[in-house]
Design brief:
Blueprint (H helix, E strand, L loop, with lengths): L2 H5 L29 E8 L9 E8 L4 E5 L6 H8 L7 E6 L2 E2 L5 H6 L1 E4 L11 H11 L4 H14 L4 H4 L9 H13 L5 E5 L7 H18 L2 E6 L2 H7 L2 E5 L5 E5 L1 H6 L4 H7 L3 H6 L20 E3 L4 H11 L3 E5 L8 E6 H11 L19
Parallel strand pairs: 3-8, 3-9, 6-7, 7-8, 11-12
Antiparallel strand pairs: 1-2, 1-4, 4-5, 9-10, 12-13
Helix pairs in contact: 4-5, 4-7, 5-7
The structure holds adenosine-5'-triphosphate and magnesium ion.
The site of adenosine-5'-triphosphate has 11 residues, from helix 2.
C-alpha cells in the first residue's frame, strides 16, 4: 500500500469515544486483502511502572498473514496489540502499516481502519445486531443502502441468517453467536488489518473449534493481515501462519511457523509452552490431503475420515475405532468418493521422518502400535 493510502483516509469523520468497541474497519475495497504490519523497536512504559510492559519489540508481519502472539498472562500481548490500532500509544518506536507510519495519523481515524475483536465481544446491548455491525461503516459515511447490504452479506458469511438475527439484540443471542457478530462487526468496513484478542476465548471447546474453522475458511478468501492473541498454544498452532512466543515484557522467545517451533523449540521456555506430546501435535499440522495415501483396501468395515482432516484426526479415529487403518474420503457419510487409506504405521513414519534429528523426544514412545490393531 502506498504511503498516501492511509493518509488520504484522514478526514472529518466523527470521532468515537468508546474505543474498546471501535473495532473496525474500512478502507480498502472488498477483497483486496491485507497490508504489512511492522513494529520497530516498540516500547510501552505505563506511568508509575518500573519496568516497561513491552520492551523494544520488533516484529514484521507479512500482508495476508495470521501471526499469533502467545505468552503468559501479563507478558504484554494486549498492550502490543492495542498499540497497533493506537488504543494504547507507544512510549517509543515506530509502527508501520502498509509502509505508513500510523503514529502520524489521526488516532480515531486510524482505529476505524483496523478491525478489532475483543474477548467480551463488546457489542452495544441497546443496539440491534444489524446496527452493531453497521456502526463503523455508518461512521465512515457509507450510505444506509450500502451499509444494509454489507450487514446482510456479513451475517450470511458468519452463518447467522439476516432474516432471523438482524433485528435481535445481543442478549437474545448465544455466546458463540455473539462472537460471530463480533467478527462480522470487525470485518464490516473491510479493514486490511484485523486484531483479535482471544476472540473465541469465551466459548466452549466445540463452538470454539467451529468458530476457528469458520474463521480460517473466511480468511482463505479474505487474506487479511491478522494479529491474533491467545493463551492456548494449541489454538496458536491451528490459527497461526507464524507464532510469536512471547516472554515477559513481550520479549520474543521464538518467531516462526508452527511446524518449525514444534520441530525445534528455541529454548526450554518455548518447550514449556508446547507441553508434552509436541511431536504428536505436529500430526495436527499435517493435512491428509497432502499425505501419500494407500490404495483403497478390499475391506469394507473401516471407519472413514474426510480428506480435510489432519493426520492427528486420523490417529484419533484409529484409537477410537480400534482399527489401525482408516479410509480417507470426500466426507464422513460413507457415500462420498473414497480416495484411499492410511495406516497407523504411516502416521508413525510421518513424525519419525521429521524428528530424526531430535533424539530428545521420541515420538514412537508415545504411540503404541498395538493400540490400534
Ligand atoms: N493501564 C495500565 N497501567 C499500568 N499497567 C498496565 C496497564 N495495562 C496493563 N498494565 C500492565 O502491563 C503488563 C502487560 O499487560 P497486558 O494486558 O498487555 O498483558 P497480557 O499479556 O495481555 O495479559 P493477559 O494474558 O492476562 O491478557 C501487565 O503487567 C499489566 O499489569
Ligand atoms: Mg490480554
Amino acid at each position: 500500500m502506498p504511503d498516501t493510502a492511509l493518509d488520504s483516509r484522514i478526514s472529518s469523520e466523527p470521532t468515537t469515544s468508546d474505543s474498546a468497541t471501535s473495532l473496525a474497519p474500512a478502507a480498502v475495497p472488498a477483497g483486496t486483502g491485507g497490508a504489512t504490519i511492522q513494529l520497530l523497536d516498540v516500547t510501552k512504559s505505563y506511568p508509575g511502572q518500573v519496568a516497561p510492559a513491552v520492551d523494544h519489540i520488533t516484529l514484521e508481519i507479512a500482508a495476508g498473514e495470521i501471526v499469533v502472539l502467545v505468552g503468559p498472562s501479563g507478558c504484554g500481548k494486549t498492550t502490543t496489540m492495542k498499540m497497533i490500532n493506537r488504543l494504547i500509544e507507544p512510549t517509543s518506536g515506530q509502527i508501520l502499516i502498509g509502509g505508513t507510519d500510523v503514529l502520524k495519523l489521526d488516532a480515531d481515524e486510524h482505529r476505524r481502519n483496523v478491525g478489532y475483536v475483543i474477548q467480551q465481544t463488546g457489542l452495544f446491548p441497546h443496539m440491534r445486531i444489524a446496527e452493531n455491525i453497521g456502526l463503523v461503516p455508518r461512521m465512515l459515511g457509507w450510505s444506509k443502502r450500502r451499509t444494509a447490504d454489507r450487514v446482510e452479506e456479513l451475517l450470511e458469511v458468519v452463518g447467522l441468517p439476516p432474516g432471523e438475527y438482524a433485528r435481535r439484540y445481543p442478549r437474545e443471542l448465544s455466546g458463540g453467536q455473539q462472537q460471530r457478530v463480533g467478527v462480522a462487526r470487525a470485518l464490516a468496513a473491510d479493514p486490511p488489518v484485523m486484531l483479535m484478542d482471544e476472540p473465541f476465548g469465551a466459548t466452549d471447546p466445540i463452538t470454539r473449534d467451529r468458530l476457528q474453522n469458520e474463521f480460517l475458511r473466511l480468511q482463505r478468501e479474505m487474506g487479511k493481515t491478522i494479529v491474533f492473541v491467545t493463551h492456548d498454544f494449541d489454538e496458536a498452532l491451528k490459527m497461526g501462519d507464524r507464532i510469536a512466543v512471547l516472554g515477559p515484557q513481550s520479549v520474543i522467545a521464538q518467531f516462526d511457523t508452527p511446524e518449525a517451533i514444534l520441530a525445534a523449540p528455541a529454548n526450554d521456555y518455548v518447550s514449556s509452552f508446547i507441553g508434552s506430546g509436541g511431536q504428536l501435535k505436529r500430526l495436527g499440522l499435517m493435512p491428509l490431503r497432502d499425505a501419500d495415501l494407500r490404495p483403497v483396501p478390499a475391506r469394507k468395515d473401516l471407519s472413514q475420515i474426510t480428506i480435510d482432516a489432519s493426520l492427528h484426526d486420523a490417529l484419533d479415529l484409529m484409537l477410537e475405532s480400534g482399527q489401525d487403518k482408516v479410509l480417507v474420503a470426500a466426507d464422513e457419510s460413507g457415500e462420498g468418493e473414497v480416495f484411499g487409506s492410511i495406516r497407523l504405521d504411516d502416521l508413525m513414519a510421518a513424525i519419525a521422518d521429521d524428528s530424526a534429528d531430535d533424539p530428545s523426544d521420541d515420538p514412537t514412545a508415545k504411540l503404541d502400535p498395538s493400540a490400534g490393531s
